[in-house]
Amino acid sequence: MSTPPAGWRLQVHDQLPSTADLIREAAEAGEAERLAILARRQTAGRGTHGRSWESPPGNLYLSVLLRPEAPAREVPQWSLLVAVAVHSALLPHAGPGLSLKWPNDLLLGGAKCAGILSEAGLDPQGRLDWLAFGIGVNLAHAPPVPGRLTAALPAPALVPEAAASAIMASLDRWWAILGAEGFGAIRRAWLERGHAPGAPLTVLSPSGSHSGVFDGLDDSGALRLRTATGMETVMAGEVSP
Question: Given 3-state DSSP classes, what are the helix, strand and coil percentages for the chain, each rounded to the nearest 5?
Fold first, then answer.
């Protein structure tokens, strides 16, 4: 079994309903940051917008708890940081076909191989208290997702504990880069791994559907979309498909 990086505590469970539920309970109970919870199998895993996340043994089901000293408005920036960190950790095993899809999916050859779900808690004064990220990676299997192509990392499959340790170490590295260089460094790293400039995109957001071409990310991490009527900035949403 891989040893987690210094400062991290890794709990490994043979089966859980959802690592996200357990990490939220720990966060609300005051658990210190850098807790990671891994399940070899989930019975009620969930993805973005409440979708179910099929969880066969052999893939990675990991949730991590962070407590950054940051305002609540910066939560989307932390989601991008985690996406970059997961990409960096998996790249040596996935190869050059690994890319990011805004805001925090990972694609392998254009097919989804990983997803990240974020959740935040605020203190009574409305300040950020904790951040939790659920990270699912198709290490060995690519369960079908309606309307989407899916992929698993190439064989030989990474052991989930090894993948978890690599992701934790990568999170530490990118957290240090954020502290030393600011969000601009995270934004540049995401853009190097994300959509090509000018790529046609359709984004589903709370305000509706937006179609245009990708024009980068603004200083807050929001997606810039050049449409027929001008530039639009999308703070939250999902690139379709």
Answer: 30, 35, 35
